[in-house]
Amino acid sequence: MSEYRRQKRRALGQHFLVSAGILGKIVREIDPQPGDLVIEIGAGRGALTFALAEKAGRVVAIEKDTRLVSLLKKNARPNVEIVAADVLDLDFREIARTRASQGRPVKVAGNLPYAISSPLLFKVFHERQALDKGIFLVQKEVAERVCASPGSKNFAPISIILQMAFTAEPRLGVHPGSFSPPPKVESTVIVMKKRPHLLFPAADEDAFLDFLRQSFRQRRKTLFNNLIASGRPAAGVREALAALGLKNTIRPEQTTAAQFFALFTILASPDKT
Q1: N or C: which end of the chain has fewer CB within 10 A?
Q2: How far apart are the first and last CA of the chain?
Q3: What is the rounded distance in angstroms from the CA atom of residue 72 to the CA atom of residue 197?
Q4: Chain centre distance of CA 25
Q5: What does each of the 273 residues of the chain score in pLDDT, given as a tens digit?
Q6: Which domains does the chain have, with CATH numbers?
Q7: Geometric angle at alpha carbon 195, from 193 and 199, rounded to 5°
């Protein structure tokens, strides 16, 4: 068995993007410039890595599979740094502080395995101070949640949290045949651009995220019932909803991000706990 085939078989279940056309479109969305730092998640065999290196000032390519790391290093270029690590264990802020040119954009990009999509995107939110733009190839249903608006069946805590800090748009659908081996799902390229300021600057972002998760705990239930199930007093929740002109029958996905933040703020006051 060839070295390439061994690497491919053992590559942590990765589906490598092999379509030159799609790779070219992703590079255009990233828009790497000579002074930019691009952090790539899941470099794989380096198809995107080395395309970015032709235009970006520096590429930090993160790859967990040590076998693939050895292949990447054989082809490394002067402006490419290969990091053998689990991206969830790294800190984007530290990477930016030690590798980026002062004042120049820091972009993060990658083909995200489904298993780490949500944790990685929440990580991007929490470490957003270091980042200017994110371009990710994700499973279609993940893209639909990230980019969803109120009223959509896909509207979820991740929609609200990420859109607090970033604009989020689906840019490109990618069919299974663009990968090797082909996955069983459709994929989508999403582009996230950091906003100048948070839409809703929560003093405790983790508490707000917990509140959102409690609000969406069971999508078939009303927002009122989900919040009661989380241990909040019924009277306090009823009063808070009424103060915002919301009915007790409203469902989580029908509630806007602004209404969630206002509700969180009201319920966080001492007399509502």
Answers
A1: N
A2: 63
A3: 37
A4: 19
A5: 343 343 343 334 579 999 999 999 999 999 999 999 999 999 999 999 999 999 999 999 999 999 999 999 998 899 999 999 999 999 999 999 999 988 899 999 999 999 999 999 999 999 999 999 999 999 999 999 999 999 999 999 999 999 999 999 999 999 999 999 999 999 999 999 999 999 999 999 999 999 999 999 998 999 999 999 999 999 999 999 999 999 999 999 999 999 999 999 999 986 655
A6: 3-194 (3.40.50.150), 205-272 (1.10.8.100)
A7: 135
Q: Which residues have C-beta within 8 Å of that of residue 103, sequence separation ≥ 6?
A: none
Neighbouring CB atoms inside 10 A of 260's CB total: 22
How far is residue 13's CA from residue 8's CA, in Å, rounded to a whole number? 9
Q: Under a CB-based contact definition with an 8 Å cutoff, are residues 215 and 250 in contact?
A: no
